[in-house]
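User: Hey, my collaborator sent me this sequence without any context and asked if I could get a structure. I don't really work with proteins. Can you help?
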Amino acid sequence: MTTTVLETPPVLEVLVPMAPTLRRAIERIATHDFSVIRGKILKEDALPLDVVDQAIDEFRRFFILIRLGYTDLGMPSKVVDEVWHTFILFTRMYHAFCDEVMGGYVHHLPCTIDEPIPTSTVSSLYAAYEEAFGFRPGPLWRDDAAAECGPGCGHCMGDDGKHCKN
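Assistant: No problem. I've predicted the 3D structure and written it out in structure-token form, which is a compact way to encode the shape of the chain:
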């Protein structure tokens, strides 16, 4: 088991030890060509130009966490979720990516008004993210939740990186 530093894109460095087979899968996530997804997002003005590349990198990190075996990970970011939604639209590409890189299909389970994102899954995501990458998730993971929720919502993060508990 070795610690893996991914060369491309340079923003992705995984700090947890892993076997060579898993390392290769992580490298494939880090280097996967998301240009078609990026193009569709920009064509439909789903995300601003200055956010789309960062959102794709954060999507890569989310899928790296899944591939590393972290479970019960919530998706609190509408920006990152937009990348996932767009990727899923390319059904054959998404299915092949999941089979070849993720080890099987990764289902998307959206939250609803009746079933909001559980606080525990957001906590799991932030803990896994910090363990795997060595730092807390940035603003793309917080701004959407905080903008829609009020104090004490139970699932957004405050500026200090902790859940609102008011």
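In plain terms: The radius of gyration is 16 Å. You can pass these tokens on to your collaborator as they are.
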